[in-house]
Fold:
Amino acid sequence: MDTVLLARLQFALTIGFHFISAPLSIGLAVLVVWLLFVYWRTGDASYQRMARFWTGLTALTFAVGAATGLTMEFQFGTNWASYSRFVGDVFGPFLASEGIFAFFLESTLLYVLLFGYDRMKPFFYLLVSIGVAGGAVLSAFWILAANSWMQTPAGYALRNGRAELDNYLLALFSPSMIPRFLHTTTGAILTGCLFMLGVSAWLMLKGKSSKLAQYSAGLALILGLLTSLGQLAFGHYHAIQVGATQPVKMAAFEGIFDDQTHAPALIFGIPDMAHDRLIYDIRIPSGLSLLLGLRRDHLVKGLHSFPRENWPPVPLMFFPFHMMIALGFYFIAFSGLGVYLLWRRRLAKHRWYLWLALITTPLPFLANELGWMAAEVGRQPWLVYNLYRTSEGVSKVVPAGHIWVSMIVLSLVYLLLFIVWLVFIRRAVHDAPVLEEADVS
Structure:
């Protein structure tokens, strides 16, 4: 196995594991803000105890995200040294800003939030929680700015074989930045909602912590429905951007091989790369043209319009992309049904729905991973789209054997870290505070 593929696999491992904890910590931090807002407005100390419980789970998740995020960034200097030299002038300000303005803000205020409950007034609890959530979102902003620049580079000049920063704002707000940021952060909040709902459902099934579980479930369902609907809108916005700036990626997403107007949207199909076609396909006539161009005769470029050596690996992005979309529609239906049961005051009475909520808990994590896979694989064979190939960026002096060893060690460490995280999450849920009954059913 060559070093380029091994380096890519190791980076996929580290970012894939990091992308379990990072969205969850963002989502939970936002939910804690609402709980502390209600506490500040009502003075009901039970909301403070709810917020404290969910803050503890946020802190556990943040710790895992911090550890894995550092490992991910170190790889730029080991496996991807050539790439780091090429983009260092652009990425440097972004990653430094993430560390200074986001990571340290979030980590410091999270410590205050954990240990300052008995030392501050409710309004200051609220302000600190807003700072934690803001730091988490800012961290995502800077990281996504760097990633978006790789997808749609802007604000740079090529000098001495390097991409050098020429216009900071153009580089920061590259063409894919805003749609990617909205799509990713909304997905993170949805992840926090469905995680909160899953934990609450477990507590309700066990007959524990009635007020905490029932109020948390209601909050998670209402915000979960709003964010799942938001994902539909932001996903469409992101798709329009991809169609305009990365047409080969969109063609691969939808299995479009030839240029066509009235391009159909795909419901189901299987790529047959030996014959450049889709088999067993079910399509909506003119659907893709309407989605991307808002008119039926909008021209959608096919894969054959681009050199084959510039095609991404179609099946490896085609299936994750459509699985992510299917999960998105499932989340809308699932949370919509939950809100209906909540409105009818029947949520706690339908144990089948609580079990379904428990089963649904890992699915937003899967959707995040599938979306990230589709986005990153869709950029191939480029590290920086149409500018710098992946094969050029790998370190020249790191042998394949060293990458194998480090990947095996990292896999074992990550597995241990994941088990420890699960153990502490389970212990925290088991010790959830018992609050008085809520008038919610």
Remarks:
- The mean pLDDT is 87.
- The CA atoms of residues 155 and 169 lie 7 Å apart.
- The chain has 14 helices and six strands.
- The two ends are 57 Å apart (CA to CA).
